[in-house]
Amino acid sequence: MSSRRKPLNLMVIGRLPSRKLFVGIAVALFIILFLAWGLATRSGAIPPIFLPKLTDVWLKMVSLAQDGTLWSDIKSSLYRISIAFAISSVMSIVIGVLAGCYGFFKALTEPLVDFIRYMPVVAFVPLTILWTGTDDVQKFLIIWIGTFFQQVLMVIDAVKRVPGDFVGLGRTLGMPDRKILFRIVLPGALPGIWDALRISLGWAWTWLVLAELVASTSGLGYRIVVSQRFFQTDTIIGYILLLGILGLISDQIMRALERVLFRYNKRRA
């Protein structure tokens, strides 16, 4: 008697699809969205000034790539976000780990961070221009303000999630604080810290575009502003889609690095 395999019901809490099925569903969703876009623009339901045809957007991006404008904008934006995000991440890891481990640093850090992180980043834009001008330092500062204070709290939370029994075991074995920090706390917290960095990278892209929208002469955000002045909707939408692609690529790179760097982490995917 042959046994039939029961169909996988994904509408059950905690049940996940296979990798192949997951990719298939994701790809199907994007195809449906692009088909809806194409139907809406070709039927004339939406004027091109509001939403141009997908082919028009593609041809415009190809044209910008051929004359070098696209690559110059990507280069400028990648440089800014790489430098600013690296500085913010290093600072947040050092301060967050210390605050998560030691009460003195927690009292010194957490109230101030909680206070500043509720301040809107947009309000700092005119001040950063006044302080540093409109060069790349101003862009670094905006990205730093938008990511650092959130990162610190997420790093502190990751450190707190390290089981206290692990630290207690280290003390039982006679390990000094320094060894407990580097051999127990950090290895236990690093997967969570990496997740925090991956999530905050999305915020960094947002603040990068904000900084380039307001005061810049190059970059993806700058090109969007220039295109708005001349009603070049195809360029605006093309650059928005490009930002989504760059963000997705950076996120997938960090996911891949996580699997390599933290093989000891047995969390469910």
From TrEMBL:
Keywords: Cell inner membrane, Cell membrane, Membrane, Transmembrane, Transmembrane helix, Transport. Residues 74-254 form the ABC transmembrane type-1 domain. Gene3D superfamilies: MetI-like. It is a multi-pass membrane protein. CDD domains: TM_PBP2. It comes from the Bacteria. Pfam families: BPD_transp_1. GO terms for biological process: transmembrane transport. Its main location: membrane. The keyword Cell wall biogenesis/degradation does not apply. The chain crosses the membrane at residues 21-40, 78-103, 115-134, 140-159, 180-197, 236-254. One of its GO terms (cellular component) is plasma membrane. It is found in: Cell inner membrane; Cell membrane. Belongs to the binding-protein-dependent transport system permease family. This is ABC-type nitrate/sulfonate/bicarbonate transport system, permease component. It comes from Rahnella aquatilis (strain ATCC 33071 / DSM 4594 / JCM 1683 / NBRC 105701 / NCIMB 13365 / CIP 78.65).
